[in-house]
Amino acid sequence: xxxxxxxxxxxxxxxxxxxxxxxxxxxxxxxxxxxxxxxxxxxxxxxxxxxxxxxxxxxxxxxxxxxxxxxxxxxxxxxxxxxxxxxxxxxxxxxxxxxxxxxxxxxxxxxxxxxxxxxxxxxxxxxxxxxxxxxxxxxxxxxxxxxxxxxxxxxxxxxxxxxxxxxxxxxxxxxxxxxxxxxxxxxxxxxxxxxxxxxxxxxxxxxxxxxxxxxxxxxxxxxxxxxxxxxxxxxxxxxxxxxxxxxxxxxxxxxxxxxxxxxxxxxxxxxxxxxxxxxxxxxxxxxxxxxxxxxx
Length: 296
Hints:
By secondary structure, the chain is an alpha/beta fold. The protein is built from ten helices and 13 strands. It has helices spanning about 5-20, 20-30, 35-45, 60-90, 100-105, 110-120, 130-140, 200-210, 225-230, 275-285, and strands at about 50-55, 60, 95-100, 125-130, 145-150, 160-170, 185, 195, 220, 240, 250-260, 260-270, 290-295. The strands form three sheets. Strands 3, 4, 5, 6, 7, 10, 11, 12 and 13 form a nine-stranded mixed β-sheet that branches. Strands 1-2 form a two-stranded antiparallel sheet. The protein has a two-stranded parallel sheet with strand order 8-9. The protein is elongated, with a radius of gyration of 22 Å. The N and C termini lie far apart (about 50 Å).
């Protein structure tokens, strides 16, 4: 019987905690569900206490919560060692978990994923879609290896600044302002305003403040697709990032707002620990890609 904690046990713990179940963790690791169950059980025997609540979803116990950050670090370090060896012998391999907001997943990541697949064919990038305020937490907790952060402050050393994403008015094509080259936010006062509860709210409020216009949203919508659907149905208008363009139905348009407003997008690894060679390799590819302004 094992008397010491080993990497397979820690990898199983991390996988179950992230996937929320033993079956999903087994699929992620490419092993049988019983192998994952045995690895977690062996870890619990070594530690003398449970690390997971066996429920739906499975979740860490208080002890599991305490050791999970260390388990993530150990798994990430082992992966980095393998990646360094692979890179030394001719190319990046392994998996990078990348988190990004919905609009970035829709409007920016497809091109980056295509470039990365060409540049690093043996490297897998798994995308995790999240809210703006979740991404930094996931990154520093080790849930993901890299993230596209919105308005990062401070910006971690080595991060890559992507093109600024400007704010646009979202209108139906039959709206009187839909054919204009730009829209003054003051001209939207007669419309019911639908506000997305994402990270763009402060940029929208600031644009209204600079225009000297009272900002009074009629509806607050959490889901971006719901908001787009409401504009599509004629319920009102909104303001959102230009990267939302691929999400729009044919009878909706984005028109730049005045005064101009934008959010900054930064592709980075974690600030609190060394980056894996795979993350560094991906960012090096982005340095030469259209839409990137290079490392900070």
